[in-house]
Design brief:
279 residues; alpha/beta; Rossmann fold; 7-stranded parallel beta sheet; two-stranded antiparallel sheet; 9 strands; 36% helix; AB_hydrolase_1; AB_hydrolase_fold; AB hydrolase-1 domain-containing protein
Length: 279
């Protein structure tokens, strides 16, 4: 099956932030000639971070993984061409599910939330435990405090940036999605079915999605016949798409995409390519 090289990229955000969090990361893609799309989750369109913190949309706490992935699939299939997919954190989990459905020409999962079959490990588990251990947490939103955002999410960003980013980007998220991820409910993919190239990243200072989790996903995804690569970033936190040095992360994704056969996954056929790299 053949495709012309993609000139479109869809950036998919994860938990606790709005699509506005891509406002800088998108710029190198635009400079490289991509048409950039930054859709948000169901229920989150139209509100600022401050407004969503003050009044979370009804139903947000019960929003499911399937509903979110279905929403993105509908959006992406409505684009003029199949795009490159780039997702961060739970956005990286969504990217893997979309590829599993045959959506997109290639995908980059940046420090992705664990797919089914990946045991998160103690650091990631303690990061999710406060949300999961609450009474009726399955149906409620969960918010990060500024302190927890700084300590767990953006721990390598300067304090001034942690404060500014919290005010500008951080919002409540779905408690149900967190429970589903912890219990492997609706998070599994079938790597042998995937035909599009996939890049997975990890960073050694990430206190939410550790490199252990990213590498475990990579090992599972390597059973695909399509190209599967792993890229490790040193000295980066979970906030690697925004903290100082984010340009290097964006550049690495653009460089990976440009190296794919035919420009950008022009042929979605079998490949034996497997690689691991550190930056």
């Amino acid at each position: 099956m053949s495709f012309r090289p993609a000139s479109t990229v869809v950036l998919i955000h994860g938990l606790w932030v709005t699509a506005r969090s891509w406002e800088d990361f998108r710029l190198p893609f635009e400079a490289a000639g991509y048409e950039v799309h930054v859709p948000t989750w169901p229920l989150l369109d139209g509100g600022t971070a401050a407004e969503l913190r003050d009044a979370p949309p009804p139903g947000l706490g019960r929003l499911t993984l399937r509903e979110i992935v279905d929403h993105f699939e509908t959006y992406i299939r409505g684009l003029p061409e199949p795009p490159l997919l780039v997702g961060h954190s739970f956005g990286g989990l969504f990217v893997q599910h979309l590829l599993d459905r045959g959506v997109g020409v290639a995908g980059a999962a940046l420090n992705p939330a664990p797919i089914g079959g990946v045991i998160p490990g103690p650091v990631s588990l303690t990061g999710a435990l406060p949300a999961i251990a609450r009474w009726n947490g399955w149906n409620r939103t969960y918010s990060l405090t500024p302190e927890r955002f700084a300590r767990r999410y953006a721990n390598r960003a300067p304090p001034s940036q942690q404060t500014a980013a919290y005010e500008r980007y951080v919002i409540p998220t779905s408690g149900r999605v967190l429970h589903q991820a912890a219990l492997w409910l609706g998070t599994s993919v079938s790597p042998r079915r995937r035909r599009q190239p996939l890049l997975i990243t990890g960073s050694d200072a990430d206190r939410l999605i550790t490199p252990y989790v990213s590498r475990a996903a990579y090992r599972l995804q390597r059973s695909s016949t399509a190209r599967t690569d792993y890229l490790g970033f040193e000295g980066r936190s979970h906030f690697l798409c925004n903290e100082p040095g984010w340009e290097e992360v964006a550049g690495a994704v653009i460089g990976w995409a440009s190296q794919l056969e035919g420009g950008l996954a022009a042929r979605l056929g079998p490949s034996s390519a497997r690689s691991e790299t550190k930056v």
